[in-house]
Amino acid sequence: MNFEIERKFLLRNDGWRDEVISVERLRDGLVGEFEGGKIRVRLAESYASLAIKSPASGLARREFEYRIPRSDAEFLLATMGGDLIVEKLRYRVFHVGFEWSVDIYEKQLAGIAIAEIELDRADREFPLPPWAGREVTDDPRFRKRNMMMLARVSAAPLTIDQLLGVSVRENV
Q: Is residue 25 in some structural domain?
């Protein structure tokens, strides 16, 4: 079984741009939720996928991700994604032997940028890049669902400052 173990950080500066190896535009939509788990559809420039994620247990959760036809992903996003679809540019960044993803959100989340690192085990040590700032892995304000729900009530794109100034329950 596959496990997803990821850590999320805010960005201090744009230093990560010097270490970019690729970039891809993504559309992610939450199409189902169950007892703390979720089903996500992703439409990227190079692929489409369906992911089923179990509730998190510490830093880890079980994740099952499957490639699906683009037409299926487009249909699922259009009919089941509702207003919980996020658009972002995902930059792949290598820093001291570790691969990071830097997500620069667009549209209603245009003020949000987050760096993520996926690990093979929860206790894996890694060097924190100088461009990585405050860790937000366990901060519910930085879960996509909560960010989208907060953006809905905002007249302008959501910013990090607005997000940090809001207290959010586990699921808004």
A: yes
φ, ψ of residue 13 to 5 degrees: the values are -160, -175
Kindly report, residue by residue over 12-21, the tens digit of the pLDDT: 999 999 999 9
Nearest residue to 117 (alpha-carbon basis) of 99, 129, 103: 99
Query: Are the C-beta atoms of 76 and 41 separated by less than 8 Å?
Result: yes
pTM: 0.90
- pLDDT of amino acid 169: 45
Token pair belonging to 152:
């809905």
What's the full length of the chain, in residues? 172
Average predicted confidence (pLDDT) for the chain? 90
**Residue 170 placed within a domain:** no
Residue 171: inside a domain: no
Domain holding 76, by residue range, is 3-164
Rg of the chain's alpha carbons, rounded to an integer? Answer: 16
Interval 144-152 mean pLDDT = 83
